Amino acid sequence: MTNQKKLFVLGMITTICLIVAGYFLWKFITPGSVNFGIQSPKEVLAGENKSIKFILDNNTRLSLTEAEIKINLPEGVLYNGSNKSPTIKLDDLLAKQSIEKEIDLMFFGEVKTNYKIEAIFRYKPQGFSSLFEKKQVLNVLVSGSVFSLNITNPNQVLPETNFDTSIFWTNQKDISFSNILVQIAYPKEYVFNSSDSESIRTNETFDLGFVSKFQQGKINLNGSMRSQGGENKKFEIILGIKNPDSENVLVISKASSVVSLVSNPLNLSVLVNDQPSHAASVGESLNVKIVYKNNYNVPLNNLVLKVVFDGSHFDYKKLLPNKGYFTFGNKTITWTESQIPQLSTLNPGEQSEINFTIGLLSGF
Fold first, then answer.
1. What is the mean pLDDT of the chain?
2. How far is CA 299 from CA 161, 232, 262, 345, in A?
3. Which member of 129, 132, 164, 223 has the lowest number of beta carbons within 10 Å of its beta carbon?
4. Runs of H (alpha helix) within the chain
5. Cα 110 from Cα 254, distance rounded (Å)
6. What does residue 357 show for φ and ψ, rounded to 5 degrees?
7. Are 290 and 342 in contact (CB under 8 A)?
8. Distance CA 146, CA 141 (A)
């Protein structure tokens, strides 16, 4: 046989071998030969452990070696208490064998957070040096929380006036938690005074630690606002755990409230001789009525009312201050609750009045 014929025959044999190998390889990697599926809930509660089941079907005639599942975890999902993406080693899958692998994942995040979790099944068919893989993407929605969290404070407060804030939390499930903390984002104008909670770590962080099933609690705060009236200020509360792999807090529940700063809780009006505007005459006696009303949503206590006279045309000898204390040096009448008992407490929506008389000089 000539060399040319030998080369031709060798080429034909090589081609046939490649076709056969390619056929078997094609048969092996054809969709359906190795199946990788996931069973999981579509919705979870923040703070909840949920079982994820991986289903593996080896429908080929070869064993699958070096099998593993790589899971890419987004922040907010933990496996065995860690946010690091795990690789789960599997035993070899024999030909025609099916197995299931189940793991637990713990989910965190605000309501309506949608997580995409990528799972990759990697393996080597027996006798192959190449690594094969199949991917699945798991979509899970955070639809609620295992904790309820509420914050209560006055709807309206006075600038520079102390007020109370209460934070209520409840573990609504029959599972316990460790390392629970509450973080508070105050308005920048808020001045923290005190808290009666033993869990306080800093003014912004409260370490609840271990929380048993169905446990509930309350954190009381007291503070004030250094700000202009007429503004709204927001408090934001997060209950969660510290991410073991970073400095971030993994959210289990979140709440907020808005406080309105009242610009002036008292409404004052003055009538002179029963008129809001009066053109006075020399020597006239003026009957002055001061009407005051509480426009605030809580009682106003220990009120002090002052009237300052400005000008040289008043006749102070004819002043009848009606229980008020007159100081000639600064031309001021002062009323306190010791003279007028109604000034001790003025309830929301309540209105009262004080009257006095002052004369005008005969010539000015």
1. 89
2. 13, 21, 14, 6
3. 129
4. 3-29
5. 7
6. -125, 140
7. no
8. 14
- β-strands 351-360, 285-294 pairing: antiparallel
Q: Which residue has the tokens 């209950």?
A: 239
pLDDT of 169-203, one tens digit each? 999 999 999 999 999 999 999 999 999 988 888 99
- Token pair listed for 190: 């808020």
The residue with tokens 């994942």 is 105
Q: Whole-angstrom Cα distance, residue 178 to residue 33?
A: 45
- Find, among 154, 181, 164, the residue nearest to 237 by Cα: 181
**Which amino acid type is present at position 73?**
L
For 157, 190, 233, 245, 265, the CA distances from 164, given in Å and listed in that order, are: 10, 12, 15, 36, 18
Q: How far apart are CA 8 and CA 16, in angstroms?
A: 12
pLDDT tens, 98-146? Answer: 999 999 999 999 999 999 999 999 999 999 999 999 999 999 999 999 9
Please tell me the distance from the alpha carbon of residue 81 to that of residue 360, in angstroms, as a whole number: 83
Q: According to the model, what pLDDT value does residue 262 have?
A: 81
Q: Which two tokens stand for residue 94?
A: 């024999």
Q: What is the DSSP letter of 324?
A: P
| Nearest-angstrom CA–CA distance, 220 and 194 | 8
The sign of the torsion formed by the CA atoms of 341, 262, 169, 221 equals negative
Helix (H/G/I), strand (E/B), else coil: 238: strand
Bridge partners of residue 233, in order along the sequence = 259
Closest CA to 141 of 48, 44, 47, 73: 44
- Number of neighbours of residue 203 by Cβ within 10 angstroms: 16
HSE, CB side, 13 Å, CA atoms: give it for residue 112: 1
Task: Report which DSSP code applies to 84.
Answer: S
The one-letter amino acid code at 118 reads: E
Confidence of residue 219 (pLDDT cuts 50, 70, 90): very high
Would you tell me how many other CB atoms lie within 10 Å of the CB of residue 116? 10
- Residue 225, classed as helix, strand or coil, is strand
Q: Judge whether 220 and 187 are in contact, CB under 8 Å.
A: no
